[in-house]
């Protein structure tokens, strides 16, 4: 009864994807969570996707994950970010109805076979013969499994801060996971503290919307997942306002009561989502900071003010809200706060997201030093798939950085480590021209199918999509003469090119070369069009990818003594020893490792092998 293949601790975004992925690979899964009613809850902002993050959501979806479908089921606002820029850096993002999103997550999770929800607190891991063998709950119940996925979010050893108030907990109204944190520290895992925060919640009925700039949902009927049939919910507009000089004066006057500036919080916060007090302190010359007012639901008056995360005292929060245009008479429904929590140095993990020092233990989400729902879900997918692989003797799921943002993130984490919460950005991917949000299925479907991650409905969709792409490619392969396109202004040199090649010319449109496709414009056609336009640049990157692949074939011994490599600085030796790269290419991705250092490592490795 209490024996499983995989135990997942935590019912957040990492936990549900881990449980679902393990289930799809055939595992019996125990999902342990404080409260089953909070599975899939959105702890902070009510949005999914964004720049870099939207790529991760699409990749998780290409592997038949939960997040994108749940997002579409609950979406009340769609917006494609960076629309005016190239396809590689556009970020699909939705605003979700919080309650409907969590309900959709639970419904999709319930459709997976072999997952048992276990309410309770996991207080300790059990270890047998040097490997994980299960967990013990706070009531003494033992649950056995050869693999455990820790997806504890911000709950591990967590404390909440608001002004001078301190409270144990990882989310308002929920307790911290202190016993598990104590055990992980006791077994000498490399752990430090990080910090995150959330803004006050506002009563939308008391906001002066008429004074604010409105931001409507996109008209184009795109969705986060191709399996979603349209948009089931009414769409709401967001609004934009800004802080003022008066706001900044209020914040500066209260900094001496801020736990962030008073030294109470030790952990670093997310660089790309700083608190409003941090913004005002660091960017004192700014006359205002933008705030997006985001509705939290169709039948919920709560509004999330994105951009003013804070842990200032309640009276200071009330004053700063009243100083913002449109919010002067707004009622605060819940005050903001900061959370400080434990995380494991991700360099202690391998690319499976498995802890190298304790076989059978996998980690996913904020415990690995990341921030964001999307990063957590992506890690949950990988950790769950690999926990199932270890338990059942299957092949590991190892997406690499040339193939996916999943691979970029995991590579960055296990090789670089973190000094602040890690957020996915398109700039982190050196091969981002290949890694568009709109081609995630093309990049990952076959890998996911081979790994056993795709369910029947997804497989049927993949087959239909592949057939459509074959037909589209056939149309784009047909030959067209320059004279046929004289009206576009192309040179009349008598040349003949394929429709795909002509699309690289800036004044040639799809309607010029394939009007039958232009009349339809399905997502598959849009992807093929982007492929054609990006082809010259992607071809150049292929050479770089080939070079990287060659370096990946140069394996480094697990017991390689980097201190014995001539020419390496002490700092390089420390970073290489901490990361333990498995290949020369992996060593090259560690911060501060120079080309000369790589040459020295290669020569040393070759001498040892001779």
From TrEMBL:
Kindly list the positions annotated as binding NAD(+).
269-283
Q: Which residues form the tRNA uridine 5-carboxymethylaminomethyl modification enzyme C-terminal subdomain domain?
A: 532-603
A single GO cellular-component term from the record reads: cytosol
User: What are the subcellular locations of this protein?
Assistant: Cytoplasm
Which GO molecular function annotations are given, in alphabetical order? flavin adenine dinucleotide binding
Write out the GO biological process terms: tRNA methylation; tRNA wobble uridine modification
**Which residues are listed for FAD binding in this entry?**
10-15
Query: According to its UniProt record, where is this protein mainly located?
Result: cytoplasm
SMART domains given for it?
A: GIDA_assoc_3
PANTHER family this protein is in?
GLUCOSE INHIBITED DIVISION PROTEIN A, PROTEIN MTO1 HOMOLOG, MITOCHONDRIAL
The UniProt family comment states: Belongs to the MnmG family.
NCBIfam families, per the entry: mnmG_gidA
Q: How does it assemble?
A: Homodimer. Heterotetramer of two MnmE and two MnmG subunits.
What name appears for this protein in its UniProt entry? tRNA uridine 5-carboxymethylaminomethyl modification enzyme MnmG
Its lineage reads:
Bacteria, Pseudomonadati, Pseudomonadota, Alphaproteobacteria, Sphingomonadales
Q: Which gene name belongs to this protein?
A: mnmG
């Amino acid at each position: 009864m209490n024996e499983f293949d995989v135990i997942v601790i935590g019912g957040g975004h990492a936990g549900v994807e881990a449980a679902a992925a393990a289930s799809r690979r055939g595992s019996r899964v125990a999902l342990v969570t404080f409260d089953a009613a909070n599975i899939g809850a959105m702890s902070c902002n009510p949005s999914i996707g964004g720049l870099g993050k939207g790529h991760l959501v699409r990749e998780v979806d290409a592997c038949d994950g939960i997040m994108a479908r749940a997002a579409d089921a609950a979406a009340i606002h769609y917006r494609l970010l960076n629309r005016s820029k190239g396809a590689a850096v556009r970020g699909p993002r939705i605003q979700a109805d919080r309650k409907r999103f969590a309900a959709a997550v639970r419904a999709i999770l319930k459709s997976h076979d072999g997952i048992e929800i276990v309410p309770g607190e996991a207080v300790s891991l059990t270890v047998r013969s040097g490997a994980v063998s299960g967990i013990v709950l706070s009531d003494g119940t033992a649950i056995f499994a050869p693999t455990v996925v820790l997806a504890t979010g911000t709950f591990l050893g967590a404390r909440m801060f608001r002004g001078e108030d301190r409270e144990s907990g990882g989310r308002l109204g929920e307790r911290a996971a202190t016993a598990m944190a104590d055990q992980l520290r006791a077994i000498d895992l490399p752990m430090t503290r990080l910090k995150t925060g959330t803004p006050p919640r506002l009563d939308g009925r008391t906001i002066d919307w008429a004074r604010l700039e409105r931001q409507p949902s996109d008209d184009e009927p795109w969705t986060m997942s191709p399996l979603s049939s349209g948009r089931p919910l009414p769409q709401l507009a967001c609004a934009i306002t800004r802080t003022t000089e008066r706001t900044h004066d209020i914040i500066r006057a209260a900094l001496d009561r801020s736990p962030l500036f008073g030294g109470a919080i030790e952990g670093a916060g997310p660089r790309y989502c700083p608190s409003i007090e941090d913004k005002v302190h660091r960017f004192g010359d700014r006359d205002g900071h933008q705030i997006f007012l985001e509705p939290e639901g169709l039948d919920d008056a709560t509004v999330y003010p994105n951009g003013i995360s804070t842990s200032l005292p309640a009276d200071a929060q009330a004053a700063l809200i009243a100083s913002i245009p449109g919010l002067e008479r707004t009622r605060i429904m819940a005050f903001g706060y900061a959370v400080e929590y434990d995380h494991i140095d991700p360099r202690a993990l391998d690319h499976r997201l498995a802890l190298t020092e304790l076989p059978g233990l996998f980690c996913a989400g904020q415990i690995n030093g990341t921030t964001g729902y999307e990063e957590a879900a992506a890690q949950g997918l990988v950790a769950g798939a690999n926990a199932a692989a270890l338990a059942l003797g299957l092949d590991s799921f190892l997406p690499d950085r040339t193939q996916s943002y999943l691979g970029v993130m995991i590579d960055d984490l296990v090789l670089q480590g973190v000094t602040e919460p890690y957020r996915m950005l398109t700039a982190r991917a050196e091969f981002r021209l290949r890694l568009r949000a709109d081609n995630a299925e093309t990049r990952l479907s076959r890998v996911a199918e081979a790994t056993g991650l795709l369910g029947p409905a997804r497989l049927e969709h993949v087959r239909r999509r592949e057939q459509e792409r074959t037909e589209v490619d056939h149309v784009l392969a047909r030959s067209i003469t320059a004279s046929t396109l004289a009206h576009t202004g192309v040179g009349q040199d008598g040349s003949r090119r394929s429709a795909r090649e002509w699309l690289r010319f800036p004044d040639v449109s799809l309607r010029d070369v394939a009007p039958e496709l232009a009349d339809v414009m399905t997502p598959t056609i849009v992807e093929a069009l982007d492929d054609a336009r990006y082809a010259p640049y992607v071809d150049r990157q292929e050479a770089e990818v080939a070079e990287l692949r060659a370096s990946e074939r140069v394996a480094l011994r697990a017991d390689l003594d980097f201190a014995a490599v001539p020419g390496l600085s002490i700092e390089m030796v420390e970073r290489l020893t901490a990361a333990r790269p498995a290949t020369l290419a992996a060593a090259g991705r560690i911060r501060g490792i120079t080309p000369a250092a790589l040459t020295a490592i290669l020569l040393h490795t070759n001498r040892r092998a001779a």
